[in-house]
Amino acid sequence: MTTEPLPPFPAGFRWGVSTSAYQIEGAPTAAGRGPSIWDTFAHAPGRVADGSTGDVACDHWHRHAEDVALMSGLGVSAYRFSVAWPRVQPGGTGPANAPGLDFYDRLVDDLAAAGIDPVATLYHWDLPQPLEDAGGWLHRDTAARFAEYADLVAARLGDRVKLWITLNEPFVHMSMGYGTGEHAPGRALLFDAFPAAHHQLLGHGLAVAALRARTASPVAIANNYSPVSVAGDADADRAADGRGDADRAAAAYDALHNRLFTDPLLGLGYPDLPGANPEAVRDGDLAVIAAPIDVLGVNYYNPTGVRAPDEGSPLPFELVELAGYPRTAFGWPVAPDGLRELLTGLRERYGDRLPPIQVTESGCAYDDVPDAEGRVHDPERIAYLDGHLRAVRAAIDDGVDVTGYFVWSLLDNWEWAEGFTKRFGLVHVDFATQARTPKSSYAWFRDTVTRPAGPASPSTE
Ligand code: BGC
């Protein structure tokens, strides 16, 4: 970590922390909540590394006041949480379950009282199980159901939420939930999962219209991005035409991960995606999907290495480890420059089509353990955040309009298929007692966000 002080960020820059419902709330049947695909998946044997479920998670349902107080102590100006669809519509359709919405109503009021902007994600992967039973995101009707749900939430919270995020990482949900089956709902369809991409995007577009009818607050989507590079013996792979298999593999992976959900959102239609069946796309869908958004949410964790696939592989690329980087406890390469590259790359690729960006997730897992005095020191996380904030600052200097940064995550939480084995929090959680202990990165982030700001940039004024 460099000893140069972190340069100031523009006045009005949004500093936040992110969480998601199933990863922290627990209370799976409280106030009439129905089952989601993650309840089903986590309870099935062998799906989650440590055999755990989100039944209790961080018990945030009962401890939200303590968690808002932690955010207040952190000095952040925004909190990105997600609303659990199965709390609002336990069966996935029909009128709102008012007691479920009451929880978010109180949360939003508590945040406002603490001077923290509520940023609500409508869908962070917890589809009501009855909708999955009817085909889930492979089924076109789910898009319409999502817009109805968006309307119900906006009718209740629309006057107070400061930024709406329709979907979280539709790429990860499609690829791991429907492509490889490592996540709920556990379908392993490879490229036949494409309808789950299209119907999520269609649901997003319909939800944007539903939100606009209820609220004047800005609307966004949070996508996951990963700069792609050719790894390994690239030269050996390159054909005489100068654009060999390795480059084709990188372009195919880039189209899948970085463009599939952004080209159509920004009005460019789908990229060429070998193997994807376009039958799900109907006349008029692309116009719905391209409804203008006010902010692009960018979630970034790491870059990706690819090489040409082996003969007979069902995929047009093979993923490989990138050498030469330090790694998090997840094994992910720590590459802050990748964030600058991706932010400037979005600007280059989309030009004036690109709305202002907020980094809606950035963070890392380490095996943080309390010391003999109960303190939790996490210098690697401080170095990680410092490096990634420098990358954001450099991208702003490069002319990219970045107006916010949210750390993933406020709390150590239930990390999907990894269960409780990966800790991403600024606050340590003892899952046996639910005791919360701010780590040294919490103090570091507080000092960072409460420093004097620099001059405003055009979009943060
Ligand atoms: C997701 C989070 C997750 C984080 C770390 C993102 O893909 O939005 O829910 O915990 O990455 O894996």
Walk me through what this model shows.
With 461 residues, this protein is of the alpha/beta class. The protein has one domain (14-449): Glycosidases (TIM Barrel, Alpha-Beta Barrel), CATH 3.20.20. Helices cover 36% and strands 14% of the residues. The chain has 15 helices and 13 strands. The protein has an eight-stranded parallel barrel with strand order 1-2-3-4-5-7-10-11, surrounded by five helices. Helix 8 packs antiparallel against helix 9 (194-214). It is globular. The relative contact order is 0.15. The model has no long low-confidence stretch (mean pLDDT 96). The structure holds beta-D-glucopyranose (BGC). The site of beta-D-glucopyranose has 11 residues, from loops.
Q: Which hetero compounds are present in the coordinates?
A: beta-D-glucopyranose
The dominant shape is: globular
Intertermini distance: 31 Å
- Note the run of SSEs as H and E: EHHHEHHEHHEHHEEHHHEEEHEHEEEH
User: How does the helix and strand content classify structurally?
Assistant: alpha/beta
Question: What Rg is obtained from the alpha carbons, in whole angstroms?
Answer: 21 Å
| Helical residue percent band | 25-40%
Multimeric status of the protein = single chain
